[in-house]
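Protocol step 4 of 6: record predicted structures for both targets in the notebook before any analysis. Target 1:
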Amino acid sequence: MFEVLKHEGRLSGFLLISGTVLAVGPLLALGALYRERDAQARAQALNFELERSQLERQALDARLRLLHAQIEPHFLFNTLANIQALVEAGSPQAPKVLDSLIAYLRAAMPRLGDPSATLGNEVALVRAYLELMLMRMPDRLTFEIDVPAALEGLRFPPMALLTLVENAIRHGIDPAEQGGRIVVRARREAEGMLVASVGDSGVGLRETRTPGTGLANLRERLAMFFGDGALLELTGAEPHGVVVTLRCPPARA
């Protein structure tokens, strides 16, 4: 009798374990399947984010190149046209203007699309450009560049400073009967922000046209370069003229 009860107890235990395995097994299998699918979904989401990030970077690079392309040609073509006119007139200034253009192109070409451009690079480019403009209007243009050497190694959006100077020439100095003066400055604020400004003594805000594609493109490039960290401001100067100020976070190139 004891053996029968013992045997029945073993059978009951076996059936209990078997029932537990049969009940829990599918749950464990479902849990493993869920974890596997969740891992696959996470991997797919990560791959999607990586692909999207890569596409966004490619689109950003393409957009930046397009914006650069919109800035460069008009100046180059205008300068070449001026050189052609000087050559046809037999002007002794033609070789000097051509030399200045070559110096400008040497400074400009490595900077196009260069994410590691520095303020020092931009100053060299602006100086070459202003030397060209001085050849074109020797009696109507003077300029000053005041940028401390300590700031020249800071990262700066490529072609940004040149865009401000071009805008000052086109909308400030050119329309002014007597021409004017361009002043380029840079400094660090107490909070650490890098501040670059281009001022002109031209016709001023009221008489100039609405800023064109140059400044519009620059605002877009600044947003791409710094996000919301950069600020571009236009203010009137006394007794006349305009000062354009660019504030951006400093960073070593």
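Target 2:
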Amino acid sequence: MDRAPFGHIMALMQRHIALAALVGMAALIFAPELRDAGAFVLSKSLDANAIKVVQNSLYGLGCF
């Protein structure tokens, strides 16, 4: 069985964390009725590394 390099796996995990955090942020911003769900997604998906990934993603999207 061929295994993916560890760096590749970490990059995929960071992408998934960033996507979950972006979905949570979108719920907080664009759908006030989903505010509790958005806060829940953010609280479950963010840690110190993920915060940096989300900041970089938002910067890349032109949000800053």
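Step 5 preliminary note on target 2. Residues 7-58 form one domain. The chain has a mean pLDDT of 68.
Proceed to step 6 after PI sign-off.
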